[in-house]
Structures are given as structure tokens and as C-alpha cells.
Amino acid sequence: MESWPIQLRQCVLSTMKSPHPRCVIWGEEQTFIYNEPAAPMFGTKHPGCLGRPLAVAFAELYEQVNALFVAAFAGQMINLYRLPLTMERGAMPEETYWDFTLLPIVGPDGWSVGVSEELMECTQIVRGERRRSFAHKFREHLRPASTMSDLWSRVLGGLEPATEDFPSVMVYAVVDDEPDSRLESTKVSSSSGNTKKCVLAGTIGVASDNVGAVQTFGLSEHLETDVGIANPCLQAWETRKAVVLSSKDGTLPASLTTANAKRGYGDELHQAVVLPITSLGNVNSELLGILVLGLNPRCPYDQEYSAWVLLLAELVEKTAVLISLPEEQRRAKQSADDTNSALVQRLRITTLQAERSDARFVRMANSAPTGMYMFDHEGTSIHVNDAYLDMIGQTREQHDTMTPATSSWDETVHPDDMHLFLGAWKSLVEQKGPVTCEYRLKRPWRSTDPSTGHEITGETWLLASAVPELDDAGEVSTVQGWLTDISHRKFSEKLLAQRLDDALEHKRQTENFIDMVSHEMRNPLSAILQSADSVIVTLDAAGMPILHEAMTLSHDAAEEIVDAAQTIILCGQHQKRIVDDILTLSKLDASLLVITPDKVQPPELVKRAMKMYESEMARADITAKLCIEPSYTELDIDWVILDSSRLLQVIINLLTNAIKFTQYSDTREITIWVGASYEKPTGKHHKVAFIPVRQSGQTPTFSAAWGTGEDLFLQIAVTDTGRGLTEDETRLLFQRFAQASPKTYKQYGGSGLGLFISRELSELQGGQIGVSSVGGKTTFTFFVKVKRFVPTTCDHPIRAPLPTAAYQLAAATDQASKPPNHAEAMVQDPGTTAQAPTPETVRKASVVEDLKGKLHVLIVEDNHINQKVMSQQLRRAGCIVHVANHGGECLSFLEKSTFCGASVPLSIILLDLEMPTMDGLTCIRHIRKRQAEGKINGHVPVIAITANARSEQISTAMEAGMDRVVTKPFRIPELVPQMQALVEETSSRTEP
């Protein structure tokens, strides 16, 4: 049903829940769907007709109803009463009568997409009314008969109109077996010993030359004669009972099954009944005649049909008896018979109505979705429906064998709720009033979550409502009531309460997180403002004109300015780290992070991370070293395939965490271990207990981009000599917004997201993370699943996804932001220690290396302050800079450049995305379009400059035609090498 239209699902669900027969005819194929109450109406067609086209499921009546459904599909509402339809829902076609209401189902476009059908079969009602009316007319038609010959004529005349119910009729009169006896002069035969014979008095629907319609036969002949209808007539004479003949068992002569086009729907006959007409209506009575009635071929010969036929035969018998009585007796007898017939008919009708009402109630109870029950005053079951048994988890056989009643309750009711159940029963019996009770069962409740398809379990809860019925003495005689399964409601209430608690806890954690983030963001801002003021005050105090190009600074003033600039850079890095953590968390929550393969050497990646923070470690006098474990070298690992950006992010989080906690210790050492294995690490090597993987975690799948190398597990451990962690603090790690303790935040700061993100990224790459802390020595260990790199003949460099590129640039920003006057931490082999160079050596180093050639750069930026600052820094880096305020000016400048055959040199464009007049995306599309049309010579290198750091925004920029995307904030010393690399790459592609 998941692929069905919403409107179809709503209609079908509404139809299935209805206790009355309902159908839905859907779509152009007129697919037929119905509910359970409608199933019995279709007989053996169920369930084969469910879900089939109407023309296939009901081929025999499709031509009769197709026009109705066409009108309904055209938008008409149709009501039909007692519509005759011939259906094949059993062994033979059957006449049926229906009340229909066809309601169009209007789709969103205003056209009918289906038809909702409310139907009710009224076949029994129509047949009953038809038979009662016919019986009345038949009796009135027989009343004037005065002789037996007149009676047989009137019987034939009275049965003539019953074309459906009696397709054929044969009337035999019983007369004395004398050679000169004539039917016209016969009276009621005497009881003398004269032999009798049957003479055919007339027929309806039977041809005169039909061999089955024997003209005359003697009643003294042998009973096994097979001459036409004679044998069944002799059997009826012998037993004085009706004899039913059938073509299936061969009792109905084949000659009498011939179809008559004007009677019985033109079908062949399947059944007939032979009725003896006697004088007293018993075995010892005298036989007056025999009726042979062909039965309706489209109606089963059931109890009602049989009763009606016997009633007609009884009317003939009574009329025959009246003919032989004196006039006064005839009138009295007629009046008594009329009264008796009316009473008998009324009794039959009342009995049938009672039986139908009882059957209707039983069907309703059994099909009700609510449990219904009736107990006596002692609690013994009188009647329960199927829904009740389903709710308590018993079969009908098990329930019927449960005695006494209290033992059956012990078997099902939860022990903790037994006192509530028995208390409600006691209150009902003693106070004689209705009660309601909620209680649990022993058996568990199971269901399926429709949104996920997962199984959910809980306790089975029932709501019982009971009402006592009192006897004449005012005592409780029976208890009846209803049972409702409220397990889903109770489960929802419990889940709602749990989620409310979780929401309150999440709200508390979020508030704490906001407090921490606000504090972490405000502190660097204060330092940035103060450092900037310090630069201005230093220059003012020296009495130097700030705008003087030949200005010289004293050594102390230069030191203060450099120190203030370093503080500004470090504070900006700190703020950026907080923002990056929040952005990564947002991507994790939205499942937007993807793992993208990249070829990398793991030790070099670790060295890169250590290089980023060497100045910070040098400032804190921290010794850092990298150790390659034997397990790594034994596997002869060189290049592997993994997501370098995600791995680097975890390493940076653990490294900055180690720096934060080690900088105040007496011993300040950080060691990073790199190992590998074929088997999944257990943590025993570093005595680490890995955090169990959450059920919602994703299992990575290797696509073709990962190559065909063997699977490996890369393990990295970061050990520090910080203050260590207690057991309580360890339990809080790796949770969202959580730090080891409130003191941790006050002393060391941070957002509480780093370790949680590290755990998420490790699990996202098929690994785990853990921690151990013993004696002031803390080790964080994690592993990820990788593949060994296997070169191919058509191997190309593997490019990381756009979010990764953005992250690498941000990480590079951290590296370049280190103060130039601090030492670098050296990365060495195991057993060696990093030695820091002197501050004088670092101070002489240049922040930005000279470029091999001048870059001609066009900056397209609408913010004049950013435009001015970027231009100044690029000029200091040796670039020749041009500026444009929006995309339109960019295109105009490009037409004057060497790319369009003009004289103005241009190497690369730095293009902002958000600008008035013409934004960056529109501009780059124009540039690439002109390239394709040949209006621009070669490929124009373009780097997008944007503050939009989300992966989908970066992807949109790349798809529009950008060569690279750089996210703000960034630093010029890291941007210039990327610019040069892009220009060189573009030049190499265009060279022949």
C-alpha cells in the first residue's frame, strides 16, 4: 500500500473499518476492493475477486452495471433500489437483488478517480415479498373451484404467472383405473378397492411431445419403472411426501431439463419437486393428484423456497377437501383454514425473523473490533466473541475448557493488577452498577511502527466496561460488557512521558551549551578588541604617522604589534573552531556528512595535524612526538584509501584536547601512536575500553571509488600527561554538550562538542573510540576501516568532496595562523623527542614565500572594506590586483583581458557569491557559457569566496562552474598557494 495514492489509501482504510458492506472501484481499470462484511455476498468469488478489475471479477454482470459505473465516474451520484443482477458466486448463476449507492471519488484535479459503493443485498426480501404476493393471488384464484377438473385447471392457471419460480409445471389427476373413465367427469375417488391411475391433466412450459411427460400410468405398477416422471410420482404416492429431483444425481429425467425461452430465464432446469395432493395431508390419506414443479434455475432450493412450495401444495389440498364437503362445512372449513393459514404464515415469518435477528447479532458480535462478553453472576463465561479471545490471547477451545472462572482470570491477568480486576468485579456484583477497569495481561504486547517498520513491544493493557443485568428478585443474573485493547495508547503515553523528560534534559543541556558558547565567543572578542586597541595605542604613543609609507618602528613597538596580531589570530581561530563544531554537529544531525575516499599516507596526515599546532605546543612548552607501531610497519602499509578530512578532524579534536589539558601539568608530553591490523581492534593494546556503537550508527559501504585493495583497520592513539580523568568524568565523555565536569569548562573552556563529534565521525567510518586514564596519563584511541591503495593502469588522483575541501582549507588556516616567533614541534621516529628551534630563528622566517611569478588577480566583491583589505594583502604577497563590485563589472573587465584577446593581463578571478546587480553564480555561468561558445580563449580560473559553508551550497557553486570554493574566514598566506596551484593546473591543461 506504500505505493498507493494517499486518497486511495484513505478510501480503502475507511472502507475496511466500516461494519457495513462497502466497496471501492478505483482507476481506469475499475479495480474492485471490498471490506470483510461484503465478502459473504460474493460467495465462492471471494477472495479471488479482490483487487481484480470489475470486468474480470464479475464478467457475467459487467454489461448490466457498466453504464452505471461510467456515469458515476463522470461525477453522478446514483441510488438504485432492488436492482436485479445475475451473479455466479457458487455452482450456478443466481438471481440477486441489490440496493446501490454509487458516490464518485473526486481527485485533486477535480476529476473522478474512483467510485465508493455502498451496497446491501435485498434478494431475500424481494423473493419473500414476491412469494407472499403470489401465494395470496394463488389462493384467491383457487377459491371458486367447485369440481376436481375445475381445480386442476385453476391450479395450472394460477401457476402460469410464476415464470421465474416455476419454469415448468405438470398436473396429474388420480382417477379410478377404468377403461371408459374420463378426466372431465371424475369426482373425488372413493376409498373402494378399485385400482388407481394418474392422468396428465395439463402442463406449463413442457412440450406436448416431451417423452418425460407421461400421459398416464397406473399406481399399482412397479416402483422401479423408469418411464419419464412416473417413478418419482410413484415414490411420492407411496411416502405421501415431497420428492426433490436433481439433474446432478440423475433423479430428474434429462427430457425435463430442457430450457424454455419464455420461462426460468431461458436456462436449463436443475431441480424439480414432486408434490402429492392428499385429502387429509398425512400418510393414510387418499391421493387426489400430483404436482410436478420445475424449480427456479437461479435460486437455491433452500428452507424458505421449500416452505413456500409446501404452502402452495397445502392450498391446493385444502381446496380439494372443500370441494367434497357440504356448503356450510365448506364455508366453516374455509374460514378456519384461512385463519389457520394466516397464523401459520405469521408464525413462519416470525420464526424466520427471529432466526435472522439472532444470526445477525452473532455475525455482528463476531465481526466487531471490540471484545464482547457475557458472564453469569459467578463469572462463568456464557458467550464471548472472537475479538475478546484475540485480546486475552486464547483460542475458543482453551477458553471453553477453563473452569472455574477465577482460574481462567489467573491465567491471563497480570498478578500486579489482579486486585484491581477482582475489586471491579466485586463492586459490580455488590453495588449492581456499571464499572470500568483498566488492567494488564501477562502476555506482552507487540506491534509494528508504521514509520520505520520496526517491531515495538510493551505491556498489554485492556479497558473493560461491564453492565449487570438483574433478575426479577433484583439480583445480578448476567454481566455483559465490552473489552478494548488500549496497549497502543498506554505505550504512547509512556513514550510521550519519556520524550518529555528527554526534551527537558535536552533543553537543559542546550541552555548550558549556549552559556558555554556565549562565554567562549565573548572572551576572544574582548581579546581581539583589546589587541587592536593595543596596536593603535602603540603606534600613537610612538608619535608615528600611521599612513607614512617610510615609517620605522622601534624593536619594542614592533614586538607589541606582532604580539597583538598573534593574539587576534589565535582568538579568531578559537571562535572559528566553535563555529566549525556547531556546523559539523548540524550536518551529523541532518545525516548530511558523507564519507568520500582519498589516497593518503596516514603518518603524513598525523604530521600535518601536529604541524598545525606546533606553535601552540611550543608556547606551552609541550613536547610532541609521533610513534609508528610495529603493527603498522609489519603490514608494509604505504598508501591507503580513507576520508582524509574526517580522519584529520578527529585527530585535531583529540590533539587540541590533549594540549588543553597538558599545558598546566608539570610534565608536558603528547605522543601520537599509529598502528594497523587486519582484525577489528579490541583496545587491549592501549588498555582502552571502546564506546559501544549506537544502533543508529551507519555502517560504511565501500563503492568502486575505494578500489580493490584489502580491508584494514587503522588505529590512532593520543596520549598526554595531563591531570587525568576520574571514573565519573569518563562516563560523561563522548556525549553531546558534555564535558568531564563543570570545573573542566571553567578551567579549560570549550563547547563540549569535540569528543562527541569525534565519536560520530569514528563510527561513520566503521570504527569506534575509547579512553583510558591511569595515574594522570590519559589515552584517547580510535580506529577506522580503510582499504589498502592498489594502483591501476588508468589511475587518477582521487579528489575529496567539496565539504572536505572546505574543511582542509579551514585546517590549513589553523596551521598558517601560528605566531612566527614560536618554535615548531618536530615529528620524529619512536624514541626521539621533538626539539624546538630558537625564537630568533622563527622570527627571521618569512610568513609568505615569494611567488615565482606575478599573479594578476581580479577581486569581485561588493563589500568595500573586505575588498580593500584583501587587495592590500594580495599586493603585499606580490600580486597585481584589480577590483570589481559585482558580476556585471567582472564580465566587462574580462572582455578587456587577455582571455578575450585584449591587452590587460589576467591570471585568476576571486569571485564572491552574494552580490547585488549580478551574483557570483550567475556570473560564473555567463563565463562558462562564453567559453563554450568560443568568445573566451582557454579556461578562466575562478575561485569562489563565500561564507556559506554547507556542503549543498558548496556543491551548487561547483556545479555552476567554480574551480575551487574557499569559505570565510581564510588567510591570504594560505589562499595564494592555492591560487598559484590552480593557475598552474589550468596552464598545464591548455598547453598542447
From TrEMBL:
<dbReference type="InterPro" id="IPR050956">
    <property type="entry name" value="2C_system_His_kinase"/>
</dbReference>
<feature type="domain" description="PAS">
    <location>
        <begin position="357"/>
        <end position="432"/>
    </location>
</feature>
<dbReference type="InterPro" id="IPR001789">
    <property type="entry name" value="Sig_transdc_resp-reg_receiver"/>
</dbReference>
<dbReference type="InterPro" id="IPR004358">
    <property type="entry name" value="Sig_transdc_His_kin-like_C"/>
</dbReference>
<feature type="region of interest" description="Disordered">
    <location>
        <begin position="814"/>
        <end position="841"/>
    </location>
</feature>
<feature type="domain" description="Histidine kinase">
    <location>
        <begin position="516"/>
        <end position="788"/>
    </location>
</feature>
<dbReference type="InterPro" id="IPR036097">
    <property type="entry name" value="HisK_dim/P_sf"/>
</dbReference>
<dbReference type="Pfam" id="PF00512">
    <property type="entry name" value="HisKA"/>
</dbReference>
<dbReference type="InterPro" id="IPR003594">
    <property type="entry name" value="HATPase_dom"/>
</dbReference>
<dbReference type="Pfam" id="PF00072">
    <property type="entry name" value="Response_reg"/>
</dbReference>
<dbReference type="InterPro" id="IPR035965">
    <property type="entry name" value="PAS-like_dom_sf"/>
</dbReference>
<dbReference type="InterPro" id="IPR003661">
    <property type="entry name" value="HisK_dim/P_dom"/>
</dbReference>
<dbReference type="Pfam" id="PF02518">
    <property type="entry name" value="HATPase_c"/>
</dbReference>
<feature type="modified residue" description="4-aspartylphosphate">
    <location>
        <position position="912"/>
    </location>
</feature>
<dbReference type="InterPro" id="IPR000014">
    <property type="entry name" value="PAS"/>
</dbReference>
<dbReference type="InterPro" id="IPR013655">
    <property type="entry name" value="PAS_fold_3"/>
</dbReference>
<keyword id="KW-0597">Phosphoprotein</keyword>
<dbReference type="Pfam" id="PF08447">
    <property type="entry name" value="PAS_3"/>
</dbReference>
<dbReference type="InterPro" id="IPR036890">
    <property type="entry name" value="HATPase_C_sf"/>
</dbReference>
<dbReference type="InterPro" id="IPR011006">
    <property type="entry name" value="CheY-like_superfamily"/>
</dbReference>
<dbReference type="GO" id="GO:0000155">
    <property type="term" value="F:phosphorelay sensor kinase activity"/>
</dbReference>
<dbReference type="InterPro" id="IPR005467">
    <property type="entry name" value="His_kinase_dom"/>
</dbReference>
<protein>
    <submittedName>
        <fullName>Uncharacterized protein</fullName>
    </submittedName>
</protein>
<feature type="domain" description="Response regulatory">
    <location>
        <begin position="856"/>
        <end position="983"/>
    </location>
</feature>
